[in-house]
Amino acid sequence: MPELPEVETIVRGLRECLPGKTVSGIAVHREKQVVNTSVSSFKSFLVGETFESVGRFGKYLHFLFSSGKQMVTHLRMTGKFIDPCMVAGDAELRHVRIEFEFTDGSRLLYNDPRTFGTFTVYPAGATPPEMNRIGSEPLDLKLTARMLAFQAKIRTIPVKVVLLDQKFIAGLGNIYVCEALFHAGIDPARAACDIPLAEWDVLLEAIRSVLRRAIDLNGTSISDFRSVDDKTGQFQDMLMVYQRTGEPCRKCGELIERIRQSQRSTFFCPHCQS
Ligand SMILES: [Zn+2]
To answer: Which terminus of the chain has a smaller tally of CB atoms within 10 A, N or C?
Structure first.
């Protein structure tokens, strides 16, 4: 599932080719993926609109049109955009769910084998409700360790589970939470409320540096993530704990362990994170 760095990589790819393109037609092959309006309203709302910019909040993509209208997409498990400059393979064309045609003859394809991705549209000036459902953006420098420590005061559950909660902090999934906790030297099983401010400082810095490095490397290619221009992410080569159960820790040599927390695997070094 794409996490913040993968979505950011996709957004950066789309920024290269979408702004200035005007929608001339839309084909929706899987109607349930348009969630807050009917397919016919979705089409009439967007045909004739020109893409102005592409942004991201948490794991959502935010498309702004010149008129101020907005479209928000969440890729969920397997969603992916194939940009107009890219040649798609046959396998990808089998799973195209939504096609945007542009007045210059090019197309943006949305491919999604498992069809869990969502599209919503909003008028100019509206605040998409998705924005209110998520917590602070980790790369936003307005977020401080003190804010996280304050929010964590009432959370008696493990810090690992709290970091996956999109309302606590936006955009993090299993890979980057495990990696950040390793770099911060924090045991994933500790209760969030027991972590002192000084350690939230270290943890927030670890989250940011892991995310920045992953964005620089176009994300992590585990399962089938590809960026818009089909470059493979390279962050998997930097992983310290994620999916390394039984392998020696790259820092201390102790074997990496795996535990289950809230139905998800957690990978950690019992020596570095004690
Ligand atoms: Zn270690």
So the answer is: C
